[in-house]
Write a structure and sequence with these properties.
Length: about 700
């Protein structure tokens, strides 16, 4: 192409005989004396044709193709107005529209590259207008429209967006522009989501793409009241809105609450137009029927107490029903179903915790929120962690820190905490500015946020640490024991006794600091943890041996034992590398065990010759020493392992499930899931009831 252009300008030089200046200009151009060349062409008088040809040639050499195109166009236009002979000469010189088009393409390409590097709306518009048949029009329009729409979006003005849509109906961004138009129109006319504003918007802008959002906002105003009468008014006022069915279901949930046969029957008589009347009949039938999740071939379904499959095996995971709702998983997403196997919460969530009081914590990607039984988002998904404390208090964590809100997401405290730890009794250990304090169940501060560490003893007394020293704080009276000790342990709150570390010794003192016992002990962490009075006696240690003393410091049992556990109704001791027990009167059960493990509610797990069993607090062996392991469950049972097969014993040591299972899992205090080589079954101890899926 460029060769052709040079050929054109070579032919143009044919006409230099008509102008000495034209000839000089071309000569200077050949020597790349551009300034001199341009001056020669500019000074041509009386022959505009040659002047424009020369300047076109100059601009072409400078690669200013747009100006070269402009001058060549003028030259060709002048030729067309000359006599027939002159036009004939122009034809001989090949100065025609085809050659002009080549310059035009180069000019268009140059301008396009400039616009890519330095884009402006005006620049793209001029380029499109000037070279619409030469450039890639689709790409040019894309760049122009992108810049134009971005500028309009910043104004947030719906009329300006509408002008863009009207001006460029076929733009690549037309659909996107319409979305912004709808959004801006909504924001302009509904600055506050009041019922009046929303209704007015629906009436005037039924074709707005945000109209579904508006319908939902109207419904939400009524739904958030949690009032049946308001939902009835919604149904009556907006019978054709898409959320009417949800309103009906919400009325049903509010009226019935936790399923109750009388309430369901009453609801049916009060609301004869309820659109899901057939479901009520099934609800009544399912109301009192327990359903149990069960797995088969990698999928979960539900069976009733007779083993009949009520909900087919179609879920990747399944939880228990709570208030008529169960959380299930499908396609790696969690949702919820009712006992009719109807999806009441779509499978949108990464996780859903079990419903409690009709509310559940749900996770969406990396964030958590709260959803209701009807699937409504109560608290938006913007928290990195949410923990339910009770029906009205939740602890949350976001990008700023930790805090408290209620079931509607309304903050209960304005403070932002660095840490929040739940304590027994509904209390919270909180950290602010690297200092720790305590809030009670009502979120009132009972220990100020000024300590390095706080440990709860009871609802009133707290062990506190400040500048490396320990003291005792009373929630009602303030600082009870100043933080002057290396370690502190409250032994008896009623007698104001504490165990303290002074230098390398442990002493039992009163809260006043006065020494309670004449004895002192060499400090060790083991001894510090061990000393604890039970019915006025405690273990103590001297010179690596353990004994028992009473609350007055009198030695009840000389320190001659290798190891001892905490004093209890049955206190374990180790002598000659064997474990035995002492009762409350210091009567010994002769050492005969190889190991004694942490006590549980019912007694001690003991071991002899590699076999384990259980003795109760009376020293009676309630589970014989024949098992590979015995594991205590907080539900009040023992899991027994006999050569790799598991069984179950109750608190009295009675075997209620023989050892023949691969796994045993406690679902609650009265329900166990057992699996053997052939089947998966449920067992209800209180009813001695076995549940397994019937063959389909």
């Amino acid at each position: 192409m460029i060769r052709s252009l040079f050929f054109i300008y070579f032919l143009f030089s044919f006409f230099s005989i008509f102008s000495q200046r034209f000839k000089c200009g071309c000569s200077e151009l050949t020597r790349e004396n551009y300034t001199s060349s341009r001056n020669q062409f500019e000074k041509i008088r009386g022959n505009e044709f040659l002047k424009n040809v020369g300047l076109s040639r100059y601009f072409f050499s400078k690669k200013e193709y747009d100006k070269a195109y402009e001058k060549a166009t003028l030259a060709l236009d002048l030729w067309s107005k000359e006599s027939f002979n002159n036009r004939n000469k122009a034809s001989v010189c090949q100065l025609d529209s085809l050659r002009l088009e080549e310059i035009k393409r180069l000019s268009a390409y140059s301008e396009f590259e400039k616009m890519i590097a330095y884009p402006t709306i005006v620049g793209w518009s001029n380029l499109i207008s000037k070279f619409s048949t030469t450039i890639n029009l689709v790409e040019a329009c894309y760049h122009r429209d992108s810049l134009m729409l971005s500028a309009i979006i910043e104004t947030k003005n719906s009329e300006k967006v509408q002008e863009f849509i009207n001006q460029f109906p076929n733009s690549y961004f037309a659909n996107k522009a319409f979305e912004f138009y709808c959004e801006f129109q909504y924001n302009e006319e509904v600055p506050v989501e009041t019922l009046e504003n929303l209704e007015s918007f629906v009436e005037k802008h039924a074709d707005n793409c945000k109209i579904d959002q508006v319908h939902f906002a109207i419904y939400s105003i009524f739904r958030k009241t949690q009032q049946i009468k308001e939902l009835e008014r919604y149904i009556s006022k907006y019978p054709n809105q898409p959320w009417v069915t949800q309103a009906w279901r919400a009325i049903y949930e509010l009226y019935v609450g936790e399923w109750d046969e009388d309430k369901i029957s009453s609801f049916r008589s009060i609301y004869p137009n309820y659109p899901f009347m057939e479901e009520l009949t099934r609800d009544l039938a399912l109301l009192n029927e327990e359903l149990y999740p069960i797995e088969k071939d990698g999928l979960y379904g539900y069976i009733n107490a007779k083993g009949k499959v009520v909900i087919p095996f179609s879920y990747e995971d399944a939880g228990f029903f709570n208030n008529g709702i169960a959380v299930v998983q499908q396609n790696e997403k969690f949702g919820a179903i009712n006992k009719r196997n109807q999806v009441i919460i779509p499978f949108h969530y990464e996780t859903i915790y079990d419903f409690d009081q009709d509310v559940a914590i749900a996770g969406d990607t990396s964030f958590y929120g709260l959803i209701s039984k009807t699937g409504e988002i109560i608290v938006s998904f913007k928290y990195t962690e949410i923990k339910k404390i009770n029906p009205v208090v939740f602890v949350f964590q976001d990008s700023i820190g930790f805090g408290f809100f209620n079931v509607r997401g309304i903050p209960l405290k304005n403070e932002v905490y660095e840490e929040i730890t739940e304590l027994p009794g509904g209390m919270f250990k909180c950290k602010v500015n690297a200092k720790i304090g305590i809030l009670n169940a009502k979120l009132n501060e009972i220990v100020p946020m000024q300590f390095d560490e706080v440990e709860k003893f009871d609802d009133t007394l707290f062990i506190v640490k400040l500048s490396g020293k320990y003291g005792i704080y009373n929630a009602n009276k303030g600082m009870l024991v100043q933080p002057n000790y290396e370690r502190i342990k409250i032994l008896d709150a009623s007698k104001s006794l504490m165990l303290v570390k002074k230098l390398k010794e442990l002493q039992i003192c009163k809260f006043s600091g006065a020494k309670h016992l004449s004895l002192s002990f060499e400090y060790s962490q083991r001894l510090f943890d061990l000393i604890s009075f039970y019915q006025n006696t405690s273990v103590f240690s001297q010179k690596g041996k353990f004994g028992i003393l009473d609350g007055n410091g009198k030695v009840v049992l000389k320190p001659e034992y290798e190891e001892m556990g905490k004093t209890n109704s049955l206190t374990p001791f180790k002598l000659n590398n064997q474990w035995g027990f002492l009762n409350q009167t210091a009567v010994k059960v002769n050492p005969m065990y190889d190991a004694c493990y942490t006590p549980n509610k019912l007694g001690y797990v003991v071991e002899k010759n590699g076999k384990q069993g259980v003795i109760d607090y009376n020293g009676k062996e309630i589970i014989s020493l024949q098992y590979n392991s015995v594991k205590w469950l907080k539900e009040g049972y023992y899991i027994l392992d006999f050569n790799g097969l598991l069984g179950l014993a109750n608190e009295f040591g009675t075997i209620i499930v023989p050892c023949g299972n691969k796994s045993i899992q406690a679902m609650n205090s009265d329900l166990f899931l057992l699996q053997n080589s052939n089947e998966i079954r449920y067992f209800i101890p209180s009813k001695s009831l076995w549940i397994k899926a019937q063959d389909e």
